[in-house]
Amino acid sequence: MSDKFDVIVIGAGPAGYVAAIRAAQLGLKTACVDAFTGKDGKQALGGTCLNVGCIPSKALLDSSRQFWNIAHNFPVHGISVDNPKVDMATFIGRKDKIVKQFTGGIGQLFKANKVTPFFGKGKLLKGNQVEITGNDGEKQTISATNVILASGSVPIELPFAKFDGKAIVDNAGALDFTEVPKRLGVIGAGVIGLELGSVWKRLGAEVTIIEALPEFLAAADADIAKVAAKEFAKQGLDIKLNAKLNKAEVKKDGVHLVYTDKDGEQKLVVDKLLVAVGRRAYTDGLLADDTGVKLDERGRIAVDEHNHTGVDGVWAIGDAVRGPMLAHKGSEEGVAVAEWIAGKAGHINLDTVPWVIYTEPEIAWAGKTEKQLKEEGVPYKVGNFPFAAIGRAVAMNEAVGQVKMIAHADTDRILGVHMVGPGVSELIAECVVAMEFKGSSEDLARIVHAHPTLSEAVHEAALSVDKRAIHKGN
Ligand code: FAD
Ligand code: NAD
């Protein structure tokens, strides 16, 4: 086999593996180099998302939700279960099995599409050559007309709360606790803090989340964040805002935290500490000094709107570049770049990338928040509709939250949709489609939505933009 490829992808996360498959589908001779080692010490394709991110966290969120429902939801339906217990080996084992199924699945997809996988650390050299260093230190060099950098991201470490993999952990550690921590501290009330904090809270941990910002979930629309904060407080998640961690010391009886909030210095002892204060683009050892590929001010690989680095034949996608650090954003960039390389019309619109937070209730949004539109001086109108008036949500005993739709005041074009409530991870897709087609709130208002479904909340929110919701006052 010749070591010259049309495309080499470095990184087999959702950005890289999707780019590799799409490039191969388009008839390009493609290789994909990845260094991720699974729990069994073997190569595990799929990157952060499949191994220690999206998939395992959703598996644990689902398992923990079943357990939570026994005590908090079943009684409403007249069902009682005495003394429910969680078997931790099965709880974690189920997650591991799902991870293995999906990481193994990527290997099969590579085989089916004739993508050549390489296991090792890839380094881009000048002239689109890639040096691969295996776990045993052995090196080999391959080359290609095009190289796609998809090296992803890693958790940000706090200098005064360094990860030790036991007491102070990152996302990977918090997905693998062997028992439920009695007291779990979380630094950062962001997406990971809320999702993994919820998992362990549902199993009985006392969860305290320390968040530096004064505002809760600043990236979301304020109305949605307010409802979510209220629900999380009801569930017993103790979220301390405007709180700055100063020290975390591991002692025999736990991790001793010192933080400052509006009332001054505070102390807290926890059994485990999850640090989830954001992620940084991972480019360590990725680029030889003379490649010409540049990093931006935040250490991300600098790219233009076509994900091109400015160096002939070198592209970059996913968490390693600007834009939201989301699996689906990286995957769509991967598809677009493969298509651009093949001379086709690739497309990605970063303005309509949906966000979903898989807490209970779920949170989802796409487009602009009301605050952003105010700052930009864009005239807008708002419609909203509560799940409390949706028959299906009430029947499910999950009638919490709302759908909020924001449309341009003059053109009625949908500018943003923000949701908190049951099943909103799925409901947001309809709104993204409407926004991609430059749809108006009236377009959604005139579309027939099945009854009784949760999607009626989207329909009614669209009607409410024009003050004509049927099942609430306007
Ligand atoms: P990654 O998935 O990080 O993959 C990069 C790969 O490249 C890795 O395998 C890495 O080992 C490899 N690599 C890096 N450098 C080299 C090199 N030099 N040589 C060889 N290989 C290299 N996003 C969502 O959209 N939905 C979710 O529900 C969601 N949940 C998440 C939950 C958690 C706990 C975490 C941590 C993240 C979650 N994310 C979620 C974010 C999502 O995981 C990332 O956005 C996504 O994985 C980024 O994809 P990527 O391919 O750019 O990078
Ligand atoms: P995040 O950016 O979502 O949240 C980090 C939080 O930590 C912020 O609220 C920030 O203000 C706070 N913070 C920062 N420094 C702090 C400090 N010193 N003390 C206290 N608080 C501090 O980051 P994350 O939760 O680590 O997740 C990383 C990224 O992974 C997310 O932004 C997202 O892109 C991705 N992710 C997505 C999903 C999903 O799509 N459902 C799930 C998990 C992760």
Main beta sheet strand tally, sense and closure? 7 strands, mixed
Q: Superfamily at the CATH H level of the largest domain?
A: FAD/NAD(P)-binding domain
Total separate domains: 3
Query: What is the CA-atom radius of gyration, in angstroms?
Result: 24 Å
Q: What is the CATH architecture annotation of the largest domain?
A: 3-Layer(bba) Sandwich
GO molecular function: dihydrolipoyl dehydrogenase (NADH) activity; flavin adenine dinucleotide binding
Subcellular location: Cytoplasm
Active site: 451
Catalytic activity: N(6)-[(R)-dihydrolipoyl]-L-lysyl-[protein] + NAD(+) = N(6)-[(R)-lipoyl]-L-lysyl-[protein] + NADH + H(+)
Describe the SSE topology.
Layout: E1 4-10, H1 16-25, E2 30-34, H2 47-52, H3 54-72, H4 88-113, E3 116-119, E4 121-125, E5 129-133, E6 139-149, E7 153-155, E8 168-169, H5 171-174, E9 183-187, H6 191-202, E10 206-210, H7 222-235, E11 238-240, E12 244-251, E13 254-261, E14 264-270, E15 272-275, E16 279-281, E17 314-316, H8 327-341, E18 355-357, E19 362-367, H9 370-376, E20 380-386, H10 391-395, E21 402-408, E22 414-421, H11 424-436, H12 441-445, H13 456-465
Parallel strand pairs: 1-2, 1-6, 2-3, 6-17, 8-15, 9-10, 9-15, 10-11
Antiparallel strand pairs: 4-5, 5-6, 7-16, 12-13, 13-14, 18-19, 19-22, 20-21, 21-22
The protein binds flavin-adenine dinucleotide and nicotinamide-adenine-dinucleotide.
Flavin-adenine dinucleotide (FAD) is lined by residues 10-16, 33-36, 47-49, 53-54, 57, 121-122, 150-153, 171, 192, 282, 285-286, 318-320, 325-328, 330.
